[in-house]
Amino acid sequence: MRLRTLLSMPPCPRTSPMRNNPQAQQELDLDRFLPYRLSVLTNRVSSAIARHYSERFGLSIPEWRVMAVLGQSPGLSAREVATRTAMDKVQVSRAVASLMRARRVARSEDAKDGRVTRLSLTRQGKTIYDEIVPLALHLEELFLSALNAEERGTLDQLVTKLTRQARLLGPTV
């Protein structure tokens, strides 16, 4: 189902932020609009975590996202990093360039395809990654402490379902 099809569908009465108010059909209540709420939540959490690693290591949010992905999956191309992080290719390119200048990421030619370059953390980048991971996990635990174990499981299931469903809206930028 593509976006055009989704837009032509009537709002779901159970979930529409405009339900039970026929006069509000052309108005958008941002306080109840899930994409907006998720974006605000993500920005708040990312910014709070970023303050910790930015002060200590001088990393931006895009730089940390690139390092986090490469720490878990070394040898990706910049395109693959962009896909995994859902970041704009320009953001990834700038973050990679900055990380390379700081000698935290290295680029090497792909053994099978000379047109592709592979990215990996340098020793310095890996050291920083290893210091940030426990901090990030601690901050995640602090954030999730508002939920009990059952709610955490439910949240994980819901995020997984919504992530799959988001693919129906079309490719990311």
> What distance separates the N and C termini?
18 Å
Helix content: 55-70%
The CATH first-level class comes to Mainly Alpha
Which fold name is given in CATH as the topology?
Arc Repressor Mutant, subunit A
The coarse overall form would be globular
Low-confidence stretches: 1-14
Strand order of the largest sheet: 1-2
Q: What CATH architecture do you see?
A: Orthogonal Bundle
User: What is the percentage of strand-forming residues?
Assistant: 5-15%
Instruction: Give the class from helix and strand content and strand pairing.
Output: mainly alpha
**What is the rounded Rg?**
20 Å
3D structure, described in words:
The protein has helices at residues 3-8, 34-57, 61-72, 78-85, 89-101, 123-144, 149-166; strands at 105-109, 117-121. The protein has 173 residues and is mostly helical. The protein has a single domain, classed as Winged helix-like DNA-binding domain superfamily/Winged helix DNA-binding domain (Arc Repressor Mutant, subunit A), CATH 1.10.10. Strand 1 and strand 2 form a beta hairpin. The protein starts with a helix and ends in a 7-residue tail after the last helix.
